[in-house]
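--- STAGE predict ---
source: upstream dedup step, 1 unique chain passed
mode: sequence only
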Amino acid sequence: MRRRLAAALLASLALAASGASPAAAMKKQRPLRSTELPLPRAGDAARQELEAARRAGTIEAYDLFLSRHGDQPLAATARRERAALAARGK
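--- STAGE serialize ---
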C-alpha cells in the first residue's frame, strides 16, 4: 500500500512540475488490456481453450482465444485455423 501511495505521490509531483493538470493526465491513461475479457488461466489453459475454439468452430471463438493467448506458441496454429474457417465463410 505504501508503494502505491508513494508512486501516486511521485506521479502527482511530476505532473505539477510539468504544468499539466492531474485530471487531464488521468483522462489520457488507458488500461493495459481490455477489462472485459476474462484473464487467461495458468497451466495448460491455452491448449484447452484452443480445443474449445475448435469444438465451437466459430471465428468468434478463435478471436477470443487469440485475444487471450496471442503470444502463445499455439497462436500461429489458431490463426491458420481461423483463416481457413473465414475462407469457408463460417
